[in-house]
Amino acid sequence: MTSAAYSAANCTLPASVDPAAPILLFDSGVGGLTVLEEVRKALPLAPVIYAADTAGLPYGTKTEAQVAARVAGLLGRMTERFRPRLVCIACNTASTIALGMVREVLEVPIVGTVPAIKPAAAMTRTGVIGLLGTEATIRQAYVDRLEHEFAGDKRLLRHGAPGLVEAAEAKLRGEPVDPALIRHAAEALRMQPDGDRIDTVVLACTHFPLVEAELAEAFGPEVRFVHGAQGIARQIARLTTGQDYSRQVPDLALFTSAGAVPDAYATKLAQYGLLRIERF
Question: Is the whole model's pTM more than 0.70, yes or no?
Answer without folding.
Answer: yes
